[in-house]
């Protein structure tokens, strides 16, 4: 990617990170964001950085083999992002947050691990689709990469048990919007608990997936 495009992407990561943080979608220094570069490398948010206060020039740059090239030390989940990109060649960006309602769902004992949230709305199906649960691992555990690798080819979003969502998109904006939609649908799901909500039918879901492919 040409220099000015990379500069612009760094600024977009910082702007969207601040927007997510300011709206309470992730707290403290939780969460991380990455973007694929045209030369095969990646930009990734630094480890222990607050997404609300990112300095664009200090965002980490990794080469196509995942080696840290510059900026601050990348997120400890860099291998998790790399595993997801490896399975999703059309994905250009990945967002991981500790968004409260999504994390709450990830802690429930009785969710379907193949599909954690029912298809309550059309927009959820269009932006997120089926959401599998990844068994609990220590944050930064390289085994998380292997666990995600097995699912990411078929799913643009996964939910890490007792941790939070990881969402890929065909652009940085698409990944952010999908993460926001997941969080709102997790909130709806919890609001509707015990009320036997009517989800979309398999036919309605299939029609949406055919008309609105994600990436
Ligand atoms: O939960 C964790 O520790 C990480 O997944 C996370 O959200 C923040 O880690 P860094 O990106 O290394 O700061
Ligand atoms: Zn995390």
TrEMBL record:
GO terms for biological process: pentose catabolic process. It holds the Pfam family Aldolase_II. Its EC number is 4.1.1.104. SMART domains: Aldolase_II (SM01007). GO terms for cellular component: cytosol. The keyword Ligase does not apply. Gene3D superfamilies: Class II aldolase/adducin N-terminal domain (3.40.225.10). It is an enzyme of class 4 (lyase). Residues 11-190 form the Class II aldolase/adducin N-terminal domain. It comes from the Bacteria. Belongs to the aldolase class II family. AraD/FucA subfamily. This is 3-oxo-tetronate 4-phosphate decarboxylase. It comes from Billgrantia gudaonensis.
